[in-house]
Amino acid sequence: MRGNDIVDMATAALESNWKRKGFLEKIFTPQEQQYIKRAASPGEMVWKLWSMKEAAYKVYTRQFGGRFFAPLRSSCTITTESNDSVAIGNIIYQTRTTFTEDYIYSVAKPVAAKDSFIADHCFRIPVSAQTKQQEFIYKELIARYSELTGNKKNGLAIIKNEFGVPFLYCNKERSAIPISITHHGHYAAFTIN
Amino acid sequence: MNTEELMESLKKVVKPYVKSEEGFKNITASSDLINDLKINSANLIDVILDIENEFDIVIDNASMEKMLTVGSAIDIITTKLNEK
What we know:
The structure holds two protein chains of two kinds. Chain A is α+β, with helices and mostly antiparallel strands. Helix content of chain A is 33%, strand content 32%. In chain A, a hairpin with a 2-residue loop joins strand 3 and strand 4. The model of chain A has no long low-confidence stretch (mean pLDDT 93). Chain B is an all-alpha fold. Chain B has a single domain, classed as Non-ribosomal Peptide Synthetase Peptidyl Carrier Protein, Chain A (Orthogonal Bundle), CATH 1.10.1200. Helix content of chain B is 61%, strand content 0%. Chain B contains five helices and no strands. Chains A and B meet through helix 2 of A and helix 3 and helix 4 of B.
């Protein structure tokens, strides 16, 4: 099982002011605030830590159910690029973050997980209307899943449950293969595993 | 402030962050801030900070965790206003 989160840097710059009074304190632990303070690019560190937390939260709620908005319940540890982690209570998630000029993207998985990993795909969304964007993302995911598994595209659908968690359906039956979808501004990504 | 007045003030606070006009037009206490109003999760922090400023209250972490719908936000604001 994976959880992922993408931050479109242009959208973040436009829509979020992480420098506003009280913002960092509502999201980040004192240790995380230190990471931000010491970073060569504090803005990048803000969104890296944020995406790590969001990615880990997605795995956590898929494992244990429920929904909550509590950025301070998760705490990030940054070591080397490939060895970052997020703790939510006693549960540790390993995260990997990718940087490009346009986006920051994190994927989280339980430390002990040895699940088979099929796909992890990041892409630009060429449309702006919100409903069109979702359509585009779902189409991409279904095309990739169909390509990988040989299932026919027209038998595949993506449906969200009551908590907003997406599931793949093959011929109206829920697939056992977990997916995770993230979307921000003009970028999106999905994992299939 | 009664619930109706609270709702009006809250609508003003969330409006700049709402991405679904449809959701905003049909706003009720059960509207989900993320799933119905399509507020992105980073902007939820802005909503919370704006609520703190607007109503001159402090929203602690335990209250923040529950702030997922318009109704829960109204409940939390009411509780905090009564504590003042």
